[in-house]
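Deviation from plan, reported transparently: flavin-adenine dinucleotide complex.
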Amino acid sequence: MSLLPCMTQKEKVIPMPMTSNCPITDLQWLTSDVVSITMEAGELAETAKAGQFVNIKCGEGLLLRRPISICDVNGSLLTVVFQVKGEGTTWLSQCQVGEELDVLGPLGHGYDIPEGKVLVVGGGIGVPPMLYAAKCCHEADACVGFRSQANAILLDELNAVCGKVLVTSDDGSIGEHGFVNALVKKALAEERYTAVFACGPKVMLKTVYDVAKEADVPCFVSMEERMGCGIGACLVCACSVGGHHKHVCKDGPVFNAQEVDW
Ligand SMILES: Cc1cc2nc3c(=O)[nH]c(=O)nc-3n(C[C@H](O)[C@H](O)[C@H](O)COP(=O)(O)OP(=O)(O)OC[C@H]3O[C@@H](n4cnc5c(N)ncnc54)[C@H](O)[C@@H]3O)c2cc1C
Ligand code: FES
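Because the crystal trials were delayed, the predicted structure below was used instead.
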């Protein structure tokens, strides 16, 4: 994965989603169940914003595309990192370099990049979108949490684009022992950040939001819901934000944590 700085979000117009046939240029297993795929995605990559996602067709047999966050962009190359879970991601993990993927994107509302330094926070498979988010910020530090050392991913890549990267694990086998919100609390006490960006399990997002709120720092979270169409047409991904039904795919996945009905 190369680590050139990305075009700032402000320089990009809100892109229209497009369907592209994207040849795979690289496929690597990062852990026993997490795969990184880089593809030649042309304009789709060039217009993607941090926090957006793509919807990938996983073989002829599966009707629904699978939503995966954008982990990195380098020119026209786009990288996604995903955990192998069910039929779709298993199919994806078995693709070969040179094969073409049918990709719809970029989709959703990503992170708006503020002035100043941002603290990006990722838990487990929520870490990948934080790489591109950190890269698109003017300055960023990271707090990331994993179950154990065996599940740790993208640390070299984060270290290359962040001022500092604080790591925690549930079993203490890498970084500090404990949960990521403790690290976030410490980081927010030591330094002034203009925003916190977070992605991970909902329970983690809520605890990170609580800590950010206490420190009076705006917090933006990437929410995950089951998806159908990915473009706001099927209502599968509805969630409640500010007392209103929102579509995670179209209005999110990034929301102001203050507005989420936790
Ligand atoms: C906006 C968004 C971004 C995501 N980014 C990533 C990422 O960067 N890396 C990653 O590993 N995973 C990510 N996910 C989760 C990923 O979409 C699911 O793990 C994947 O769809 C599972 O598909 P499957 O066929 O392997 O599993 P199955 O369980 O067989 O899937 C069955 C159906 O449920 C849906 N589904 C299952 N789990 C989820 C889930 N957690 N979220 C939404 N739909 C789900 C599938 O899309 C499919 O339609 C993201 C989800 C969303 C909504
Ligand atoms: S996935 Fe269809 S409306 Fe969001």
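The longest strand covers residues 18-29. We consider this an acceptable substitute for the interim report.
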